[in-house]
């Protein structure tokens, strides 16, 4: 499979996808017909227009899947698919409702390049269990696309040592996940992404990623790190630690 999984689509002080545009335009070369999935936000037309504005200057033609009577049919004439960020629960519910969950999964496993950002990157994992989002709707299942066999936590945040907030940190929440599931979680900080191609996976971007595994301390993975071994893991869900 050919995957570009971005932690975020908007970086502070930059335009939409601007922080990763060189990587995105290499992944989506000029002439690409891109099927965009806008269901993570409520206003599909405005969201699609935003993606067009960012990508058409580099030669990418963008069509929202919602613009077709059959959203899944739009994949057949696309050269790549992009699932954008927003609320992951709303997005997954729409993927089930439209038949796109199976259609996208099968097309990408068959070779269609897949780009995700934020919620779209959550969709590439086996389940929704490590998302940061509020469940504003209830999808039929937490099962996502399963394009990679491990979990990803986009927008990973380090604890602020000066904060007086006493709620759980992101690290504590992911540790709780690992108490009930034996599945690696790759935390992608802002400005970072995961590139998967030809059976290899590499951390790229502006900051290190952070890898969480059961019964081990989190590991820092600098940009450029080869994490291909994660593609061979066998996830264990609902396997409480003893």
TrEMBL record:
It catalyses: Dipeptidase E catalyzes the hydrolysis of dipeptides Asp-|-Xaa. It does not act on peptides with N-terminal Glu, Asn or Gln, nor does it cleave isoaspartyl peptides. It is found in: Cytoplasm. One of its GO terms (biological process) is proteolysis. Its EC number is 3.4.13.21. This is dipeptidase E. InterPro entries: Class_I_gatase-like, Peptidase_S51. One of its GO terms (cellular component) is cytoplasm. It is an enzyme of class 3 (hydrolase).
